[in-house]
Structures are given as C-alpha cells and as structure tokens.
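In this section we turn from sequence analysis to structure. A common task in structural bioinformatics is to predict how a protein folds when a small molecule is present, because the ligand can shape the pocket around it. The inputs are simple: the amino acid sequence and a SMILES string for the ligand, here flavin-adenine dinucleotide. Study the lines below before reading on.
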Amino acid sequence: MFAEGNPEVLVVGAGPVGLFAALHLAKQGITVEIVDSGVWACKHSYALALYPQTLNLLREVGVLDRLMSNAYPVRNLALCDRNGTRARVRLGDASDPLGCLAVVRQDVIEDMLEHALREAGVAVHWRHDISALQPAADHVTATVDRLEKESRGYVVAHTEWVVGRRWDLQTPFVLGADGYNSRVRRTLNIEYPEVAPAQYYAVFEFETDAKLGDEAHIVFGPGTSDVLWPLPGNLCRWSFQLTDYHDSVAEEMKDRLLRSGFGYFPTERPKDRNEGSENKYPAVLDEKHLTDLIAARATWFHGSIEKIHWRTVVRFEHRLAASFGQHRTWLAGDAAHLAGPVAVQSMNIGLFEAHEFSNLIAGILRGRGTLADLDACGDRWHAEWRRLQGLEAPLQAVAETDPWIAEHAVDLPGCLPGFGAEVAQLAAQIGLVSPPVHSKTAVP
Ligand SMILES: Cc1cc2nc3c(=O)[nH]c(=O)nc-3n(C[C@H](O)[C@H](O)[C@H](O)COP(=O)(O)OP(=O)(O)OC[C@H]3O[C@@H](n4cnc5c(N)ncnc54)[C@H](O)[C@@H]3O)c2cc1C
C-alpha cells in the first residue's frame, strides 16, 4: 500500500541503485516511495563486486556487517595474459578490513538493501510501472500503473500482465533508477547514444577446487578482456568476451530502432525479474566451449569444473546519457550509463550517484540547497563517465611503463575498479598516469 499523502521523493526502479537511494533518503527522514515494474526480486549474481569506497556507503546505511558476512574479499587484481600474471594491483591497505573488493552476488546485495528498507518502514511496490511523468514548477506528476494478472484467450487460455489500476501522484522529486531502458530517461527525451561497440560475454559460474586466494584475474588477449572472480562457497565465475558471437535478434532489433530514428534505445538486457525459461542456452555456453576458452586464453587455470550453477550470454552495450536529468527529475545507475562487466562500474558508480543525488535532494527539501546543486552534480557525473568511457583524457604510459601494460593502457579504464582519484591511484601502481579529475569528496 502507498502511504497516505504524496512522498517527498519517488524512486523508480528497485535494482541496487534504486534500493540504495530509497534507503539513504529514508535514513535522512525523507518520505519516499519506491516502485518496480518487475514481478519479483532478481535471483542471480550479475554485478558481483563492491569497491572499497562503496563499502563505506553501505556502512552509512547500516547494511555493511550483514553484507561482509556474505562476501569474499579480494585484495589484489592480477593482470594476466594466457600464460600467467604480468602485473598486480593492490586494492587497499592490507591492515584495513574494508580495503578490498567485496565479492557478493547482486541478488544478495538487493535482498539486504530491500530488507533494510523494510526495517526503515518503506516497502518496495513490485509490479508497479511508472508510465508517464509530467513536470511542473514545484513538483512532478507521476502516473503509476499497478500490473495485475488476467486470464486471456479462448482457444488457448493463458494469463497476461495488464494494468489493473492507474493513478497519479505528485512528488517534489523523482529519481529514475529504472535501468537500461529507463522510462524516466525517455520521458525527459534524453538521448542515450552508444559510445563504443557492444561486447558479448559468456558467463559461467561453477563449483571448483581452484585456490584463488584473495585475487581476481583480468586476462588480456588479442581484442579480449576476460575476468575470473572467486565467489563465496568454492564457486568461481569466468566471464569470457566473445569476439565472433552475434545475437541476430538483438542486432536486428538495434538496426530496426536505428532505421526508425531511435538510436538511443538499448537492446534488451533482461534480469530474471519476470517469468521465462532458463533451460535453453546457445552452444557457446556448453561446458566443452568453457574448457576450450580456458585452454586457449588461461593456460594457468587448472581448477576443476564441477557443477555449473549459472551460465548466460550477456550483450554489454556502452552508452552514456546526454545528461543525468533536469530540474526535479534525475537519473542514476544503468538508467544513465551502460559499461562493460569487468570493473563492475555501472552498479558501483551508480550507488555513488544515488548517494549524491539523494543527499542534495534531502538538502533542498530541508531548505539547505537549490536546484542548481543538482545541475552541477549531474554535470560532474557526466564528465566523470566521459572519462571512464574513454571519451577523453585516457590513461597514459610514460617512458618507464612496462611495455605490456602500455599496450593495454587503452583497455584499463574499463577494468580498474574505481573512479576519479581512486582510478588514478590504482593506475599509478602499474606506471600509468591519469590526468586530474574532480574529487567525489567535493559533494556533501
Ligand atoms: C545477465 C546479466 C549479467 C550481468 N553481469 C554483470 C557483470 O558481470 N558486471 C557488471 O558490472 N554488471 C553486470 N550486469 C549489469 C548489472 O546488473 C547492472 O549494472 C546493475 O543491475 C545496475 O543496477 P541499476 O539499479 O542501475 O539497474 P537495474 O538493476 O537494471 O534495476 C532497474 C530496475 O528498474 C525497474 N524498472 C524498469 N522500468 C521501470 C518502470 N517504468 N517503472 C518501474 N520500474 C521499472 C526494473 O524492473 C529493474 O528492477 C549484468 C546484468 C545482467 C542482466
């Protein structure tokens, strides 16, 4: 049930970014409603690692201890080729328990955030879609559709989700954390151009006897960046970039959209929030292909491949919204950017965007700021993402840089877990220099 009266903030989308934003707002005493058109919470690992800096955000909203008890700490990134490790990047101070990447399944992260949100008195409204937004000077009117199941068909009976109830609510601010196909972004007519070609990855999660210690491995090959993550419970995840894979349905849909003038619509990237079969998969996900990929690209991996828990092909697009919003409606997370999977940037940095936007919105609601603060925040994140997407100021090799690192300098911004000053520090460990960028600490 929606609370009596209008919320001070409406959060659209209950992925990690929307859940965090709602929790952070609720903890500041802001009244918030959060809706998600999905039927239920997701059940897979997807984005699976939290940066050391992200852990501090999660401490702020009180979920850190629960989260760390489910996490596998990774303290080093091994940068490899097919024959072994060529360089290492230390992710934090060894004496700091939070100086690590915390590897946690995304469904576990979402579950914890939703639980904490419920404890803070806010329930996610699943099966609620925002179908329209109408801006006004001092509020936004959002049209909410409650989706219900209805029996349809005479010859072949089936059920469909239909709009059971529709109503308008007025709210001073909307935060769109509604993912790659964001309705909030489309309502604002914000373009979402591709900034680099899409990449396909085959993802395999399986039980193994490999001893991966406290390292994640990034493996560079000719035109590929693969990644091996240790996971809690003797599991690991290999994500292999597929250079010769072509999803004709996805590509055709993209071509059709382009021809119709909709170049800024990403192709579908479904989470398992809705019903569907998971049993069918393409040949690139056969166990034989997995062993072939390991033999060709990571001869040093001798771990067993036992039960495969999850396998999927994901098409990772690279997109950046033309802006992060305007006036009283703002975007965070995949709604504003799509990136490759290696450095888990879109979710982690999305949590920082949610943190800053919700801090500023709370400030404005309590008379401590103006809408101009939101404009400045959106501009800063846009500039940061241009750099992360390699659109300007790339990492540079100097005379002393190891030639193998110099060769991969162009790929590294999408592989180093961090943004702003943190990326510069990580890059410096392997002899790369990064031009100065804004510091996130500049925002309250
Ligand atoms: C199969 C798969 C594997 C992945 N692997 C990786 C990986 O290895 N590394 C990595 O970094 N990232 C990976 N990702 C991407 C990662 O999951 C996303 O970056 C992350 O989920 C972004 O979080 P978000 O909260 O911004 O958006 P989302 O998690 O997409 O959440 C958006 C939510 O908004 C809801 N919504 C959409 N439209 C509406 C509407 N109109 N009204 C109400 N609600 C709406 C959706 O139901 C969804 O729950 C993967 C994704 C998938 C699908």
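DSSP finds eleven helices and 22 strands in the chain. As an exercise, try to locate the residues that line the flavin-adenine dinucleotide site and compare them with your own expectations.
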